[in-house]
């Protein structure tokens, strides 16, 4: 039974692939078996190398030092601006055994502003551009994707939902329907940039020093998963490669800054918009959940407890999370988190995960859930992504809107596959 529990994720991956194939626009046009097996092997190899090879994992964990440095630098600014609400010493005596007040809006969320400015500066200096091009080259050489899809995949690891489409802005009018869907799915199946730093800071209490490494590795493993699911749901007609839109250095870069100061200022303004958006979304999401729970409270209790959205999400998604490798005793907790992420917002799900009582999830179950939650695939992201693409290329707005729900489903399937792979290569309780 223990062996079955360890490798149950294989069944989960097979089920996820069948769901994607069943929703395909052309079931006969799927990529070839060799390409599918290659994509699966790449996911497994990445998960194995990152999690099980000590020196690679040590390198991933080292990123946590960078996050900590950014946190301390951000606190210097927020504490100056907001005083003890922003992280400065409290001007009163804290009750014995109590922690200093933690104000998320003033102490944690300013990270997105600082990192957004840093990312813009690093892009202007060419450092991020080189990293994006390098990852794009790897995706093209290993999975045979087009240059524009590879470029988008590389950008998604460093830039946000709004910024990453700017990198391929010049190609939206040229790319095929399949390539457009791959670009959208890649965006849905990863997290990046400022929010990665934000989420890592949020999860340090449960994941420790490896929080940043886990989130980076989740996005890396999800890249081949996203491309596989995208090609199954919207085939590009061929053996797996299909028509390819090449990239050209002659195209005018859409993400450009006049100077370093200009990069810092524009990056700060973009970060401020994200900062306010996150605050607004969290307020509205928590309010809607509370309102939904009040309405559900009017119904009769079920098994001695009132109905809540969290319980309903848990019931719906528990079998799904069990298939990924989460023990059944933890499946309802994991299912409620997955439902929160898919329907509401991944940051809200991470906040709930970080607030779980000790022992709610086993170490292995915690990793599976963390990786499965690690993506932008929520309902709000559909509107954000479609509106961004529609603004950049108005003639593809209707097509992007038609693919919106599909990309949401594909993104959730891809991150779920990543969670299953992590469960397969993680041993123990």
Write structural notes for this entry.
The longest helix is centred in the middle third of the chain and has 37 residues, at 260-296. Helix 1 runs antiparallel to helix 18 (397-425). It contains 18 helices and no strands. Helix content is 71%, strand content 0%.
Number of strands: 0
| Apparent shape | globular
By secondary-structure content and strand pairing, the structural class works out as mainly alpha
Helix percentage range: over 70%
Entry summary:
The protein has 429 residues and is mainly α. The protein has helices spanning 2-22, 33-52, 54-82, 104-108, 110-124, 127-143, 147-156, 163-167, 177-188, 193-207, 211-233, 260-296, 309-324, 328-344, 346-354, 363-373, 379-392, 397-425.
Note the topology:
Elements lengths: L1 H21 L10 H20 L1 H29 L21 H5 L1 H15 L2 H17 L3 H10 L6 H5 L9 H12 L4 H15 L3 H23 L26 H37 L12 H16 L3 H17 L1 H9 L8 H11 L5 H14 L4 H29 L4
């Amino acid at each position: 039974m223990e062996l079955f529990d360890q490798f149950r994720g294989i069944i989960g991956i097979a089920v996820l692939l069948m769901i994607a194939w069943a929703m395909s626009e052309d079931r006969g046009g799927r990529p070839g078996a060799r390409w599918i097996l290659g994509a699966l092997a790449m996911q497994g190899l990445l998960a194995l190398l990152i999690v099980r090879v000590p020196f690679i994992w040590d390198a991933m964990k080292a990123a946590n030092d960078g996050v900590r440095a950014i946190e301390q630098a951000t606190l210097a600014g927020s504490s100056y601006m907001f005083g003890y609400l922003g992280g400065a010493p409290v001007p009163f005596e804290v009750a014995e055994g109590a922690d200093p007040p933690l104000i998320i809006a003033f102490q944690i969320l300013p990270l997105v502003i600082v990192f957004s400015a840093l990312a813009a500066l690093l892009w202007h200096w060419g450092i991020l551009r080189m990293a994006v091009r390098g990852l794009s080259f790897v995706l093209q050489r290993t999975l045979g994707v087009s240059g524009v899809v590879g470029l988008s995949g590389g950008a998604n690891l460093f830039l946000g939902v709004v910024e990453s489409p700017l990198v391929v802005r010049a190609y939206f009018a040229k790319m095929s329907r399949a390539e457009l869907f791959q670009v959208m799915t890649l965006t849905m199946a990863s997290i990046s940039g400022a929010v990665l730093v934000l989420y890592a800071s949020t999860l340090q209490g449960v994941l420790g020093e490896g929080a940043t490494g886990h989130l980076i590795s989740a996005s890396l493993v999800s890249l081949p998963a996203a491309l596989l699911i995208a090609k199954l749901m919207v085939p590009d007609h061929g053996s797996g490669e299909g028509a390819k839109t090449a990239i050209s250095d002659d195209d005018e870069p859409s993400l450009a800054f006049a100077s370093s100061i200009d990069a810092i200022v524009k990056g700060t303004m973009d970060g401020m918009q994200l900062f306010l958006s996150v605050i607004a979304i969290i307020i509205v999401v928590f309010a809607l959940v509370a309102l939904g729970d009040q309405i559900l409270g009017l119904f009769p209790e079920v098994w001695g407890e009132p109905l809540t959205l969290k319980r309903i999400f848990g019931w719906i998604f528990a079998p799904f999370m069990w298939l990924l490798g989460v023990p059944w005793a933890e499946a309802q907790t994991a299912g409620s988190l997955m439902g929160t992420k898919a329907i509401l917002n991944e940051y809200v799900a991470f906040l709930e995960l970080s607030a779980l009582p000790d022992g709610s999830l086993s170490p292995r179950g915690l990793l599976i859930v963390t990786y499965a939650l690690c993506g932008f695939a929520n309902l709000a992201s559909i509107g954000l992504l479609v509106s961004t693409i529609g603004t950049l290329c108005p003639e593809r707005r209707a097509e992007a809107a038609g693919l919106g729900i599909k990309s949401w489903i594909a993104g959730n399937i891809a991150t779920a596959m990543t969670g299953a792979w992590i469960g397969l290569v993680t041993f123990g309780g």
